[in-house]
User: Which sequence fits this backbone?
């Protein structure tokens, strides 16, 4: 009798265990949301815009930055590495190559999840605008990655040079293997997403279009892309002008940034930063928040003064240098210490995660696409097109 009781007990225990195991396996293993409605797709696309951008390491490696000497310090080793054009290996922060790689592919993953959800819903016409936005975001993030980690596009060598992995599906396994492919293949993928997505963009989808890939921002991206996507027959320069005209119209001066009028009378640093990235400014086409220490490193703060746009650079090469019209470009908005005389356009937005210990996240808000930059793309395309 006791043996039978033990047998029945064991059977019941096993049945309960299998039932519990089945319930566990049927449960989503984390807190992810099921993307099963149109509103959820729209919400997900907010995270398809990269929160990482290489502005800090690119600027530190440019002619805009000078070495002010060993008497001054720097906050991150990557500041010196970028200035010296050395490999940035030790830093893995938000402004580092590692940060760029992880952050941009996270944005791509969000775009891919949105596209997968749209496909599973049957690609309804009511989600065309969201599909276009997701495709533009995916193309843009890959384009930024290609500009960080690949060589410049050359039609003579692009089929031989390494590209980057072009992710088109959400990951379903741990650490999947990707192939980089060629640079030519990378640009072909970007172009395919861009051309498919651009006609689907609908500004009416957004309450604030400039926080998303609106029509003008999408055309500005296309103009920049085709300036980089060089063809031996120079045919892509015509595309730069075509997409640029869609942004600028027939009278570009109307939409260009009016620095003196918009910022010249503002003396408060934070107010000036807010005004520069305002959605009400016609020149701003896309406005994006990022994680970055760049406002502190570049801005008018008494810190990280080893590498910066000092007075010599400012007076001879940038904002105080004599322009063709014999006046400085824009002197009223310069702020900072002698080692960092900058045109202050990016303020620091600090997010406290622990106010008691003063710990938090550093944010900036950037303008990846503007009418001024699109005009420069068109000017460069005209010059290159005319060259023999």
Assistant:
């Amino acid at each position: 009798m006791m043996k039978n009781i033990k047998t029945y007990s064991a059977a019941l225990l096993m049945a309960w265990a299998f039932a519990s195991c089945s319930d566990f396996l049927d449960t989503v293993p984390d807190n992810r949301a099921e993307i099963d409605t149109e509103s959820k797709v729209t919400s997900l696309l907010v995270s398809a815009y990269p929160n990482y951008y290489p502005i800090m390491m690119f600027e530190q490696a440019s002619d805009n930055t000078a070495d002010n000497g060993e008497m001054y310090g720097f906050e991150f080793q990557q500041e010196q590495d970028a200035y010296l054009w050395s490999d940035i290996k030790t830093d893995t922060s938000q402004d580092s190559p590692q940060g760029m790689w992880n952050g941009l592919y996270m944005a791509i993953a969000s775009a891919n999840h949105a596209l997968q959800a749209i496909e599973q819903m049957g690609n309804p016409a009511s989600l065309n605008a969201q599909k276009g936005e997701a495709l533009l975001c995916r193309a843009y993030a890959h384009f930024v990655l290609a500009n960080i980690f690949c060589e410049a596009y050359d039609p003579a060598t692009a089929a031989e040079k390494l590209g980057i992995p072009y992710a088109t599906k959400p990951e379903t396994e741990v650490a999947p293997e990707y192939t980089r492919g060629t640079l030519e293949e990378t640009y072909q993928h970007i172009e395919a997403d861009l051309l498919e997505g651009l006609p689907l963009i609908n500004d009416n989808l957004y309450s604030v279009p400039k926080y998303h890939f609106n029509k003008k921002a999408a055309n500005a991206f296309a103009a920049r892309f085709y300036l980089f996507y060089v063809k031996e027959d120079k045919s892509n320069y015509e595309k730069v002008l075509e997409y640029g005209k869609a942004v600028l119209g027939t009278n570009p001066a109307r939409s260009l940034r009016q620095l003196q009028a918009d910022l010249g009378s503002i003396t408060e640093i934070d107010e000036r930063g807010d005004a520069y990235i305002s959605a009400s400014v016609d020149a701003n086409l896309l406005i994006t928040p990022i994680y970055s220490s760049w406002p502190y490193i570049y801005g008018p703060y008494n810190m990280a003064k080893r590498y910066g746009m000092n007075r010599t650079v400012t007076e001879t090469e940038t904002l105080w240098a004599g322009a063709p019209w014999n006046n400085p470009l824009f002197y009223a908005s310069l702020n900072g210490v002698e080692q960092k005389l900058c045109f202050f356009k990016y303020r620091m937005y600090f997010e406290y995660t622990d106010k008691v210990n003063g710990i938090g996240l550093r944010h900036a808000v950037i303008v990846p696409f503007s009418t001024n930059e699109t005009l420069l793309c068109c000017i460069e395309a005209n010059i290159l097109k005319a060259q023999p």
